[in-house]
Design a protein that fits this description.
154 residues; 16% strand
């Protein structure tokens, strides 16, 4: 497909998106997502602090998991400095209790195929919420068999 340096939903052509979701169809994975419209966030702390935003919404996804997650390995796209990583780990341990989170890693999406898969899935889901797009459900429908839960945050 000549995709360089990585699969990123917002930067792919439609035919690349189609081929990507066809290629991942046979693999065993599921998608759980929370959709956040930032304009609906009233907390100035969450709106202005990227780290707090991440922590709150990742915690929400982990907390309301119906008991599925045990010893989860969390991978977040981006560099993440050491202080933030340590604070995030402490935050999750404090708010989620023992046993839910095994590790938190920050990875460069260019070198991590699963982060690229997550980006493509998140992009397909986000696109489905854009009412101005005629093809808004195109890639979400391709992903539908893998969707376990899509939670529109309100």
């Amino acid at each position: 497909m000549r995709v360089r340096p990585e699969f990123k939903f917002s930067k792919c052509r439609d035919e690349v998106r189609d081929a990507f979701f066809e290629a991942v169809r046979p693999f065993d994975f599921c998608v759980r997502a929370i959709v956040v419209q930032k304009k609906l966030i009233y907390s100035t702390h969450l709106r202005s602090q990227k780290e707090a935003f991440y922590a709150f919404f990742v915690k929400s996804m982990l907390k309301f998991d119906d008991g599925l997650l045990k010893q989860a390995r969390i991978v977040i796209d981006g560099p993440g400095d050491r202080v933030f990583r340590n604070e995030l780990g402490a935050y999750f341990r404090h708010h989620l209790g023992a046993g839910k989170v095994k590790s938190i890693r920050f990875r460069d999406s260019q070198s991590d195929r699963l982060v690229q898969l997550a980006d493509m899935c998140a992009g397909a889901i986000a696109r489905s919420f854009k009412t101005d797009k005629d093809d808004r459900y195109r890639w979400r429908n391709m992903l539908a068999p893998k969707l376990e839960d899509v939670w529109p945050f309100r």
